[in-house]
């Protein structure tokens, strides 16, 4: 009971520090700002819509190509053209591509009257880039049969022999696919990439909320260590034995971590969902324990309040920079 009373007093003392309040407000303010942004701005992925009015095996090959190439662009399927146009207008999509009725037959027979409609808005930024990715996928899906049809009409199939026609068809298709799939000759997709995703992934929210939690709890733990070292330099604990000093060091750090952990828990529950409550609880507990141990070790190494205060920004940067780089590499 005595320990709880001491920690409660130390927490009240910590909450009187402007730096502590500023750090604690970092999480809710950041998450509020993220929620206030348009959905497109919360994602690092470039999202475009795909509407195919009459799907067939060729369009399946087309979308399969977009799905199997490396991520970079996200292509979202739509069953309704008005819905896709609304999402382009609202900024959820960078651009939208509409493929009309009988598009596949028109492509194979090179009917220039049938066209792909591209929808953009004032906020569209990458439609020219994603167009190239769409062109690459169209070439992959249709070019072999377009070549067979063109050569058949002009040169080869002026014969009644079905066997000759089938062998010519097979020969052209195999040779064409060999050229497409052989990177030593050329790469049909160049440096373009794409991804065909399910509807619930239209705008993946990859804001680094977890990194924000690491930063907040760790900084609050360091502020608790700083309080302890200030008291230690002022002789507050001079009459206490070593194990009691260690106890007060732990309590000061805990007084910094507890408010940060509570604020992080509430913010993440609102930001994520109640279904994630177990994950959030375990995650915050682990981060809190690691922060307590690391800040205590830092205090033992530096020992003096002034030295610790000068070194604290460098400790924060050196600790969080690898985490930030790791987070960015996953985005």
What is the helix/strand order? HHHEHEHEHEHHHHHH
Q: How many beta-strand runs? A: 4
Q: Could you give a short account of the major beta sheet?
A: 4 strands, mixed
Mean pLDDT: 76
Distance between the termini: 46 Å
Number of spatially distinct domains: 2
Strand order of the largest sheet: 2-1-3-4
Beta content comes to: 5-15%
Oligomeric state of this protein: single chain
Task: Specify the helix fraction band.
Answer: 55-70%
State the helix count: 12
Given the helix and strand composition, which structural class is it?
alpha/beta
Global outline: elongated
Which residue ranges are poorly predicted, with pLDDT under 50 across at least 5 consecutive positions? 182-205
Radius of gyration: 31 Å
Protein name: ABC-2 family transporter protein
Keywords: Membrane, Transmembrane, Transmembrane helix
Organism: Coprococcus eutactus
Transmembrane segments: 250-271, 277-295, 307-328
């Amino acid at each position: 009971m005595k320990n709880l009373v001491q920690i409660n007093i130390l927490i009240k003392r910590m909450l009187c520090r402007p730096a502590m309040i500023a750090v604690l407000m970092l999480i809710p303010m950041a998450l509020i700002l993220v929620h206030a942004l348009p959905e497109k701005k919360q994602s690092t992925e470039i999202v475009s819509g795909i509407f195919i009015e009459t799907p067939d095996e060729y369009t399946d090959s087309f979308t399969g190509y977009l799905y199997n190439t490396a991520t970079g662009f996200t292509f979202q399927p739509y069953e309704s053209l008005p819905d896709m146009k609304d999402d382009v207008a609202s900024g959820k999509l960078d651009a939208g591509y509409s493929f009309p009725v009988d598009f596949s037959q028109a492509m194979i027979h090179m009917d220039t009257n049938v066209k792909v409609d591209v929808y953009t808005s004032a906020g569209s930024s990458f439609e020219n880039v994603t167009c190239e990715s769409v062109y690459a996928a169209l070439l992959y899906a249709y070019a072999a049969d377009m070549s067979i049809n063109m050569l058949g009409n002009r040169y080869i199939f002026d014969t009644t022999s079905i066997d000759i026609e089938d062998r010519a068809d097979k020969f052209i298709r195999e040779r064409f696919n060999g050229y497409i799939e052989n990177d030593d000759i050329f790469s049909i997709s160049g440096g373009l990439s794409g991804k065909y995703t399910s509807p619930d992934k239209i705008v993946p929210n990859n804001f680094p909320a977890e990194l924000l939690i690491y930063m907040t709890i760790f900084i609050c733990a360091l502020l608790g260590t700083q309080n302890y070292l200030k008291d230690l330099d002022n002789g507050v604990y001079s009459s206490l034995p070593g194990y009691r000093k260690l106890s007060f060091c732990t309590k000061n750090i805990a007084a910094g971590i507890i408010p940060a952990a509570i604020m992080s828990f509430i913010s993440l529950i609102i930001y994520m969902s109640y279904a994630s409550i177990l994950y959030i609880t375990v995650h915050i507990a682990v981060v809190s324990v690691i922060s307590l141990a690391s800040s205590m070790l830092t205090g033992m190494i530096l020992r003096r309040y002034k030295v610790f205060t000068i070194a604290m920004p460098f400790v924060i940067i050196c600790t969080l920079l690898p985490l930030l780089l790791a987070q960015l590499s996953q985005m």
